[in-house]
Amino acid sequence: MAEDIIAQLANGTELRFPAGTSDDIINKTVKKYSLPSTDRSTTEKIGRGLSSIARGAAAPIAGAIVGGALAGPPGAIAGSLALPAAELLTKGLNTLLPDRYDISSPTAQVEKGLTRLGFPQPETRTERMLQVGGGALGGVGSQVGALGQLAQTATSPVARGVAQTLSQQPVRQTAAALPVGAVSQYVTEESGSPLAGVAAGLLTGIPFAIGAKGKLQAPTVQELKGQAGQLYKFAEKAGAVFKKDPYSQFAINLENILIKEGMDETLTPKVVAALKRINQEKGGNVTLEKLEILRRIGRGASSSIDANESRIGNIIIDKLDDFVENAQPSQLSKGSSEAVKALKDARELWKRAKKTEIIDDLVASADVRAEANYTQSGIENVLRRKLVNLADNPRKLRAFSKEEQELIKSTAKGGPIQNALRFIGKLAPTGVISSGVSVGGGALIGGTSGAVIVPVVGSLARQGATQLGLRNIEQLRNRLALGYQPIPQVSTRGLISSREAIAPIINPITGLLTEEYE
Q1: HEC per residue, 223-269
Q2: How far is CA 408 from the centre of its chain?
Q3: Helix 337-372 crosses helix 378-391 at what angle (to 10 degrees)?
Q4: Which residues make beta-bridge pairs with 14?
């Protein structure tokens, strides 16, 4: 004879059903007897609500702490997602394996463990909503924090860009987590549809994104110079000193190279003077600070108005940089290679600051001119002319790499869409003559409707060209300030919505609670 089906309520009560009873009847009966008692005090309800939030947040936060201790920010992110990953893997294996080899749910095991640790098991819909919301809060909070650190420490430009994108608007992301998770759980239980729960979560997250823009936080010139200054101080404090033999050999090799390149006392006097100063340091140990001074002397030669002398001066700088950056511990009599790396990084930051400053000054100057004479040119045209002037100035352009020079030139020229909009924008009524041409030409083409449509289209196209020009120069500035091509940014609304769309995956407790209590 078939045995009865036994269902256990959260308070330990067992309900017996005859063999063969449908799941639908069992679920409805369990739900009926699981209704909350109303004799709890307000204080107790609040306490259980807070405990439910803590219960949900416990797993992702614990995973992030352990992962962070083992592998820093990447480990924290992986740790916060460890339970969802294990749950997905288990479900995948159970789909492939025969029923008798089914693997128990990792999330269910964690739930049992949390109950044994003293976290109250949720008994009401509100408590289940708060637990799911707590899980979302713990996951988002730990991930956003770790991503923020990763955006500063990642060695790969791509990794830094992705981390920076995903960690934007951390307050809004974190604030949205609990209410979105709670509403998603409520709708899922009420409707019986996980998709409806996801949709409700998406709608709940929208208000948290209103007014926010996904904007890349590229460093300012002041921030770059501040970071460079700190690294310079560290390099000086470390006091790396090069042995005399490696430096003397470097000076001899450099002189041979410069002679082959055309160094001449009459034709390249600044190069000769720089080499003379470099040779004076032979025969003794040379400090990192001294090499930095020699580099500045070499830059004096590289800034010569004579193209050939400038070329040879740049060779001096490149060779000095190679000597310092490729230094081996055996070449140092004092200090460490860390000081050399700090100096290299400081130079890179300082170069980025100076390049960014050129673009910032260009934009500031364009703003002033546009305000004074907006009707004739507009800010987009002023910026374009400024960039063209920069691209045509070999001396200023020399500060930028080949890739950066091409980016400046392409930004000055504008893309096909921007140029097309600029051309159509000539129909915009910006003055007496242009208004007459725009309205009159429109009337000739399409009568009264044309007289209205043509000026409107011209104005919209002109505005579009302006916005594209501003966006392109902002992207150029960000590229120079960051030192790498930034990852395309997503809006805060898109970021929050994406999180909620995958909530059932990264917060598997949602589905588990729905299955248990529906």
Answers
A1: HHHHHHHHHHHHHHHHCCEECHHHHHHHHHHHHHHHHHHCCCCCCCH
A2: 23
A3: 130
A4: 8
DSSP 160-215: HHHHHHHTSSHHHHHHHHHHHHHHHHHHHHHHS-HHHHHHHHHHHHHHHHTT----
Note if the pTM is more than 0.85: no
Dig out the tokens for 482 from the structure: 């960051």
> What value does the CA radius of gyration of the chain take, rounded to a whole number of Å?
33
Nearest to 107 by CA among 78, 123, 131: 131
Residue 418, amino acid: Q
CB 439 within 8 A of CB 451: yes
Measured from the Cβ of residue 319, the count of other Cβ atoms closer than 10 Å reads 18
DSSP 426: G
In sequence order, the 6+-apart residues with CB closer than 8 A to the CB of 176 are 140, 204, 205, 208, 209, 496, 499, 500
Q: What is the pLDDT of residues 421-457, one digit of tens each?
A: 777 766 666 654 555 555 555 555 656 665 556 566 7
Write out pLDDT tens, residues 193-230: 777 877 887 788 778 777 665 555 678 888 888 887 78
* Distance between CA atoms of residues 422 and 285, nearest Å: 61
Question: What does the domain layout of the chain look like in residue ranges?
Answer: 1-35, 42-216+502-517, 241-334, 351-485
Mind listing the pLDDT tens digit for each residue in 387-428?
Answer: 888 888 887 787 788 888 888 888 888 888 877 877 776 666
Q: Please, are residues 268 and 308 in contact by the beta-carbon 8 Å criterion?
A: yes
